[in-house]
Design goal:
heterodimer; A: 82% helix; 0% strand; elongated; B: mainly alpha; 6 helices; 63% helix
Chain lengths: 57, 131
């Protein structure tokens, strides 16, 4: 659970929940919007992680 | 959406009182304004996120004017309200720099505080009748 990826997913989950609750009023809308946000955060994080993989430290 | 307390604009003094309550305990402002589901979600999500940051051995930064970035970190940490005070009084949140999760913990703590500040702004808008 404390892997880099695992922590990124947990972090994204918390942020998605709060943003979705802030920006949508109905529970069903919150779930749909939160799911999209979570997928976007994790997808973008994974993509950027792979792009950085090709850069030397 | 069903009628809530927030459907009428709150007096200025009450608005600021609600904002202070919302800052002290995440979600309380929404509870006050009758938006219980949102309030419960914020209470659980932000408190657990803050606790997670402490569990990851992140640090609650001190206010050091000589180090502006540390002071900004402290300001963000304080955004969570009462959990910050409780953690400080309990002596947790010292942070362990050599822990592999130290920076992750800091990120969780700082972002939990910043998100609660956004929640307070949302409460302000609702109390003013803008939402």
């Amino acid at each position: 659970m404390t892997s880099h990826f695992g922590l990124m997913v947990i972090f994204s989950l918390f942020v998605s929940v709060v943003f979705a609750t802030l920006m949508r009023d109905e529970l069903s809308e919150q779930l749909a919007f939160g799911g999209r946000l979570l997928a976007g955060f994790v997808g973008a994080g994974t993509l950027i992680g792979w792009v950085l993989y090709f850069f030397p430290l | 959406m069903r009628a809530t307390t927030a459907d009428r604009t709150q007096p200025a003094a009450t608005t600021y009182l609600i904002c202070v309550a919302a800052w002290l305990l995440p979600g309380v402002g929404h509870f006050w304004l009758g938006r219980r589901q949102k309030g419960l979600t914020f209470l659980v999500a932000l408190t657990v996120m803050f606790a997670f940051g402490l569990w990851l051995e992140g640090a609650l930064f001190p206010f050091q004017v000589s180090q502006p970035l540390v002071a900004l970190g402290a300001l963000a940490d304080v955004g969570i309200g009462l959990p910050y005070v409780i953690a400080r009084s309990a002596g947790v949140g010292a942070g362990r720099v050599v822990a592999i999760t130290y920076e992750y913990g800091n990120t969780f703590l700082i972002v939990a505080g910043l998100l609660n500040m956004l929640v307070v702004l949302d409460v302000f808008d609702i109390a003013k009748g803008r939402k």
